[in-house]
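Model: Ready when you are.
Researcher: Fold this.
Model:
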Amino acid sequence: MKLYNSIFYSILLIISIVFILHYREFYKVNNTYEILNINNKLTNYNKYIREKLPIIFTKNIDIDDIISPITIKKYTIKNLDYNNYLCHTNDLLFIVVNDAIIINISTPIESSKFKQVSSKGTEKGKEGAITSLKNINNTYDYKYIQLKLNKNNILSIPRYWVFKILTLNPNIDIYSYDTLFTRIFNLV
């Protein structure tokens, strides 16, 4: 009986450590106004993804090479209100550009200048956790970087960053990915 108890507590300890490490990583943000630009195929993108900065991939890459091995769900996001600002809490979010677009992007620290549009503005379930936001003062009194993306560019936006697609009727594909941990932490 003592052996079973020690095995049980050892497994519980290991699970707790893994959970805590992922919890810290989930809530880690980077408020630096910096954009990473990757223009060649790499074998390991994790180093760049962990920096929690937006990344522009300029060469054709396969998004499936970037996602985490513990990814459990891929969402194709449609029907977003591009008149609003957007924010997500998924593990990864990619915008695949089919025609040139312009996007304003702000760090998580600027999110205090925005409010959620309504509970209907949060697209969860089949579309991932994408929240529609409005600027509190309806002005551009927040800091942002304006990105001009060309056809075949892929933009990775870290969780909690606020962004707005300025191009009318953008020709883009948006994908988000969840891991078991993002699912759990989004419930908390």
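Researcher: Now this one.
Model:
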Amino acid sequence: IPRDENLKLRDFPTLAHTIEFVYSKRPDLRPAAATPASAPEANAPAAEPAAESRPAGVLEDDGVKDAVLNLIAEKTGYPVEMLDLELDLEADLGIDTVKQAEVFAAIREIYGIPRDENLKLRDFPTLAHTIEFVYSKRPDLRSGAAPVGEQAEAAAPAQPEIAAPKFRGDLQASAAIPRRVPVPFLRPELTLCKASGVTLTTGSRVVVMPDQGGVGKALIKRLEKLGAEVLVIEDVPTGEELVKRLEAWKAQGEIQGVFWLAALDEEAPVENMKLADWKAATHLRVKLLYHTMRTLYGHINQPGTFLVSATRLGGRHGYDAAGAVAPLGGAVSGFTKAYKREQPEVLVKVVDFAPSRKTAQLADLLIEETLLDPGVVEVGYAEERTVGLAEMPVEDGRLGMTLGRETVFLITGAAGSIVSAITADLADASGGVFHLLDLAPRPDPGNPDLVRFANDKENLKKDIFQRLKDSGQRATPAMVEKELASLERQYAALSAIRAVEQAGGSAHYYSVNLLDGAAMDAVMSQVRQTSGRI
């Protein structure tokens, strides 16, 4: 097709328009329309110009379109009559990139299309694009002929997979799985460990979030003595303010590492905290750490760079009889370990300490842990000993908590299908009292859609689709899926309630947003009034 200098791409917004563009320039490629046997060839319709191109919904029917639509129907569970060629695979059909890859793999198998390593799924956003993919790889199918021979067999829509039957948990099988718990063990002294690959010297630029107890001040002095440029976060900024500050520091040169000491400070007992206190404490300790590492993600990402956090959990990360001294450090520990998962080349450590007024010694240990021993992420100091953690099978001979009718459970996310199943297992084992919390509204047992969700989901989909159309909306499978998702949560909540009641227990359901502090206060007041304890 010769280049047309007057072509306006905005005149071809969909794949159907793009296909029609080809036909308008090469009418010899247009599939012949079905005509009566006696009709003369001269009656075949002429090619339509691109400006009058027809929408995808009235493109010629052919075997490719039917095969692709049947495949999409199988993958999504929606009948073919609900599938319009202009529907977006992700936005309208809920087909994410993983499922889209499965669709294209199935199409390649059906039509014998070789795998293309350079294929970009984002280039095929709609059903029409997907159909055109087949034509582009198998132009011989453009006439509407189905694949022949082995390909014809493959083109038949695959039978839908039979869903696995629902089952209740097998407590006996669960008991056969070894229970593993983190156990402290002694690590060798740092003098026996190899270098980490990190150097702290002239030219090093290091971010420090200090504590209020003096360890940060001692650390800063030692870093400056080594010749490093220390970039200190001296206040408690908002996330946005901190990002701007870090961006300015980045503009001045590479940043090698971060020392995060905010979790060394004492914290009030959780039961004495107000919601505002809790938010302030988590903001300082872990949310600002998140903003810091997100902003420095492109700097702290290779050997020689580091993130070292310090906590005050007790020296053994809380895994001892005393438990964690300052448990909010657990959030810092968890984030730090997650960063190591994402950036395995970076030296990442969380160093835990027991309560102490010493500052210089802890600062020295933090620097030594940065320069030495790359073989550990979680390390602690308790009673002058270096402690690591390992997951070990445990057999303590104890039967554990006894569950019975007096046991009071509080379960959040109760309308989730997995949580509903767990609730059913707990109810079977106890027959206790259950306080179930979820954002979903309290399910109405008399709602006929909930009954159909369990027994007639396919026809329910069609009815919801028709309701949406009757309301004047542009009905799409994604909108139907949204309605079904709401019904699914209500059904799961109702299943949990019934499981508790069938086990002889009592269920109390609360529709509440866990992010609404006042609403949660009200719910917990009701729980206290009803049960007195959890």
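Researcher: Key takeaway?
Model: Confidence is low (pLDDT under 50) at residues 34-60, 148-166.
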